Design the sequence.
């Protein structure tokens, strides 16, 4: 009987904590970080922990999570800031468009978004590259809808699934899995999701056929016509960095992390292997990428200007690091209170596939409050303690939280407004078709992939 009462108390504590967390994020002026700490405290105290135990768990969870990923987030946003202002993103887009040629402009923009969003937030990336969407649309007579969806989707999927973007890195830390594993599997799962959304964008572009006016200040909707030419860059490249330098700050750390992951999986030993493992550890790899960005992309900048750009990036990282640490604190309270184990046992006795837990929680939180990053960082600590006691690959569980955060982007998501406004889509019904449906298609494809890989590599 006592165990039953104890279990009920844990469930009550968790339920009240989550309800209050959602209420605070949605309806009050309380910041998400403070809301996570308050929710963690309420969950622990109502769930039967002493005040001292709650504080110890919060401190341990906050420090433990940030100890593994706080530095990576800091390096990543500093690199992204340099990448953004140096013109590297624009150079990358133009490279893809020229290489892929006629009628592959959507693929070129999706690839650009896919890579650009690794160091840059998707909102910033879309704002920077949307003039390119207009330019391609004018020259090819392709709808800005099909081109814009391809770019926006490439940006948001990588931002949601592939480290070192903050959300996936934070989720990796909370689930206790290697960033390299999330990186590798995130890329694998992201490709079909991007292709599916891109095909939908091509279909929709014929039904919402919108082009920019000749002066680029407005929009027109003529009768649909097939594209007339490939996009050839007639404009000068201004002071854009070389193609090699544009790609290097991203590709170098990604390749180093992947090398470390492969070597670790194959259990190869030796002095050279130790060096590769060191260089491929996420903190060192992203740090090397940051050095490449500093010396490769800011060569003509003054030292003071370069440092200012990086400090701008650090300002945005502060909030992300705090929210991620807050998620870790909530997760540790759930572990130490026993609520995670108790719920896991209940789930183990039910017919619900455990892999769906992080996915469902992230989807619900995303629909309620709008932010994909907050959704995955909230879902991870709630479900990680349960997953730890169930027969589920924690890498796939972590990715389940990431994929769930993509569901039906709408009015409470800032990126929804950025995409639609930059493409000149003003009616709510069309906005939902352009962006809400696109993210939902990617989300659904991701769910199918998740179930397949979990079944095969269980």
Sequence:
């Amino acid at each position: 009987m006592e165990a039953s009462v104890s279990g009920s108390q844990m469930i009550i504590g968790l339920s009240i904590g989550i309800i209050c967390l959602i209420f605070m994020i949605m309806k009050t002026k309380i910041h998400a970080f403070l809301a996570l700490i308050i929710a963690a405290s309420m969950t622990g105290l109502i769930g039967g922990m002493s005040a001292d135990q709650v504080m110890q768990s919060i401190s341990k969870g906050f420090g433990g999570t940030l100890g593994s990923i706080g530095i990576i987030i800091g390096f990543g946003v500093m690199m992204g800031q340099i990448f953004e202002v140096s013109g590297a993103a624009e150079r990358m887009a133009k490279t893809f468009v020229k290489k892929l040629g006629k009628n592959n402009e959507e693929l070129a923009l999706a690839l650009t978004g896919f890579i650009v969003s690794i160091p840059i937030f998707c909102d910033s990336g879309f704002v920077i590259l949307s003039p390119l969407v207009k330019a391609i649309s004018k020259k090819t007579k392709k709808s800005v809808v099909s081109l814009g969806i391809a770019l926006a989707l490439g940006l948001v999927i990588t931002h949601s699934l592939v480290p070192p973007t903050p959300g996936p890195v934070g989720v990796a830390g909370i689930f206790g899995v290697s960033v390299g594993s999330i990186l590798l599997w995130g890329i694998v799962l992201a490709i079909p999701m991007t292709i599916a959304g891109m095909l939908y964008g091509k279909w929709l572009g014929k039904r919402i056929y919108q082009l920019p006016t000749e002066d680029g200040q407005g929009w027109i909707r003529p009768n649909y016509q097939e594209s007339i030419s490939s996009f050839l860059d007639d404009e000068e490249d201004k002071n854009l960095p070389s193609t090699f330098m544009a790609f290097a700050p991203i590709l170098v750390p990604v390749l180093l992390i992947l090398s470390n992951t492969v070597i670790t999986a194959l259990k190869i030993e030796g002095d050279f292997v130790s060096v590769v493992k060191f260089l491929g550890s996420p903190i060192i790899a992203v740090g090397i990428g940051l050095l490449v960005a500093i010396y490769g992309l800011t060569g003509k900048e003054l030292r003071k200007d370069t440092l200012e750009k990086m400090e701008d990036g650090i300002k945005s990282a502060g909030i992300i690091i705090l929210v991620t640490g807050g998620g870790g604190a909530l997760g540790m309270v759930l572990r130490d209170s026993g609520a995670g184990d108790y719920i896991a046992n209940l789930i183990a006795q039910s017919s619900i596939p455990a892999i769906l837990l992080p996915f469902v929680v992230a989807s619900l939180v995303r629909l309620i409050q709008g932010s994909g990053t907050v959704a995955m960082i909230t879902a991870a600590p709630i479900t990680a303690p349960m997953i730890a006691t169930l027969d589920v690959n924690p890498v796939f569980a972590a990715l389940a939280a990431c994929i769930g955060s993509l569901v039906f982007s709408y009015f409470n998501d800032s990126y929804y407004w950025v995409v639609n406004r930059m493409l000149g889509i003003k009616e709510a019904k069309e906005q939902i078709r352009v962006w809400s449906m696109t993210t939902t298609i990617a989300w659904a494809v991701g769910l199918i992939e998740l179930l397949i890989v979990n079944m095969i590599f269980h």
Summary: The longest strand covers residues 211-212. The two ends are 36 Å apart (CA to CA).
